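Handout, section 4.2: multi-component inputs.
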Amino acid sequence: MSRQRRHVLAGFAALTLLAFLWADLSGPAPDPWLTLRQVGWGLMHPSLPALPALTYAAALTVAFALCGVALGAGAGLLLAPLYQFTPVRWLCVSVRAVHELFWALLLLNITGLSPTTGILAIGLPYAGIFAKVFAEYLEEASPAPSRALPRATGQITRLLWANLPQCLPQMRSYALYRVECGMRSSAVLGFIGLPTLGFQLETYFRQAHYDQAIVVLAVFFALILPLRYWLRWRLALLFILAGAALLAAQPVPPMADGAWLRFFQDIVPAPIRLDQPMLPWLDKVLIGQAWPGAINTLVLSQIALALSALLAAVAFPMIVPRVSGRIGAAVGHGLLVLVRSTPEYMLAFVLLQVFGPSMLPAILALGLHNGAIIAHLMGRHASTLTLRHDAPRGLTLWGWELFPRLSGSFWALCLYRWEIIIRESAIMGILGITTLGFYVQRNVQELRLDRVVLLLLVTIGITLAVDHLSRRLRRTMRLGNDLRIETSRGQWRT
Amino acid sequence: MVLTGVSVSIHAGDRIALLGRSGAGKSTLLSALQTEMDRAALRVAHIPQDYGQVLELSAFHNVWMGRLDDFGTFSNLRTLIWPSASQRAEVRDVLNSVGLEALDRKPVQDLSGGQRQRVALARALLRGGSVVLGDEPVSAVDPAQGADLLDALAQRFDTGILALHDVDHALRFATRIIGLKDGRIALDAAATDVSRAAIMDLYA
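Output:
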């Protein structure tokens, strides 16, 4: 291990320790066993909730996901060729730095609790992500076909005939992967009131109807796990249109006239609007809310990242047949798929009911979800390694061959998930943990949109800073030059 | 590869074979000529060594690519998605002439190396124009077929400059032979005046 790498890792360990000392892990837990017993009883005795409502919520979950991803993919495809221009790049970076739930909280003030809100909340950040990934694909396309075209061929024709067709297969599989993410986002939007499966789950859980909540969860899995079997490319357009029709038929709660205008008035900082001194306002928002929120976000994400790394390192050999045997690998696969298909927010919500309000549920949820994703990618990578004939088996193989050989990719993956964990940590605030999302949510409820916008800017700033730091660390540690994470994520399902 | 002090004048009607060891500067000379001819606004058909194909698209599309500059963006977009029957027929005729029957709907990635090279030739034949530039355009087909394809190129284009490695092909196609050695022109003469020994010297 290089010295630089060792220094970075030691720094991470020290920060994690510090975060542990800071973190509030002991909430006023009711009695975890009491709730766990009830949840367990529900698990064993599932009972069907009102079927029409459940079916409708499931259909809406799919519809929001498909329409949101379609919007994001369409916009991303249009933006990708322009991604090299700085203003476009910054636009994409900013829209994707704001989490879907934050977008939804903002949009609720303009478009109300309507399908538009849900579609835009998914579509806007996804457009930024699609633009970036598609631009990378286009950049990697071979320049030879374009060179061979007649010189006078126009730019757009060159793009459509020579570059785009080369990237289409990757773009398709990436879009399919994104639909999976869109399903999770769509379900989670239910927690702030949109009529998806998340809304049903929250309702049943809060009423302690665990037997019915379990069924809602099962329906979600039944949709997302076999996604690649029911979402056929030939039928994609049909699915999207059906989804759009379903959403268009949704009743829209009336918004007062001039919602747009009022929104743009409200996001102007109060001191400017009301001609008051600026400093107390800044002090209140930045020192009183953004500072503690940011510290807690960083603390939560640090511990969650460490937990993800630990879980992934231990769990990835589980899906390598040479380590765990054929049956063990199949079981391991199933377990990892289940954990990474569950949205971390939903997981945190459930754990919160068990452990009571503290940072612990959020840490566990983020650690489990991200750990499962890293473990899955590592396991896949491990199965492509060529091993000697007399290579050991079992844990010896893991310790002597797999982990040492894959450690570069492993740290690169962890650093790559760091930015995503930060975004998710901020969101956990909506559940009542005092990260940035907590203050965003409170100001939304008090209709102080100027403060919401400032807090979101702080969130974007932190996300970008971590993204930048992660990229620099990867370069210093000379990691993952050979590892194309977006591509490999895109190829999950191929 | 750097060419030093190379100056060639090409006359309309010349059919030139570029000969020389690999690395002698044939490809460099070809791309320099390409730039010059583009500047002179000549209609040039180009057969690059790597064919410059989009593997995911069908043979039809890869052949039609030779004529994209004849149409506007919207027309090209329509052809990409929904080619007309007459466009298909036109391309099918050219593909038949290079010996690829009933393959126009197949993605190029499913074709063999020789078939792919013939698709590249078909693109040049469909494009037409005053000049054809080719870098080893018949290297992947058998010699007899190669000779036929070279005849087709000679018939379709007034002027042609091809890098070749088969001496028989060169003597059959060319009216003029240019031999390169170490980045310099070592031989430039009418094909009828060149002895085989002089050509073999290039490879010594």
